[in-house]
Amino acid sequence: MYAQNLKKIRKELHLSVEKMAEKIGIPASTLWGYEGKKRVPSIELSIQLYNILNVNLNWFISGDGEMFVSKDNIDDEFIRKVDIVLKKRGLIG
Description:
The chain is mainly α.
């Protein structure tokens, strides 16, 4: 799901792989690897997507909710839920 969701984010923002990679601070080849399912995103990527692009991490991982969030609406309960999902999927320890 993450591969399709990364591509959806990129398309929604009208960014090339190179421009999105530059925006979130990773090599374009790494982003190509994520989109091509050759690499598994790290928790650091998820944090960058949230911090830089306001990506809803719940949506990114599970497909539930809106693609983007307003950081003004984020609360500790939401962060806790995302943490649980990331742990269940083995993305964080």
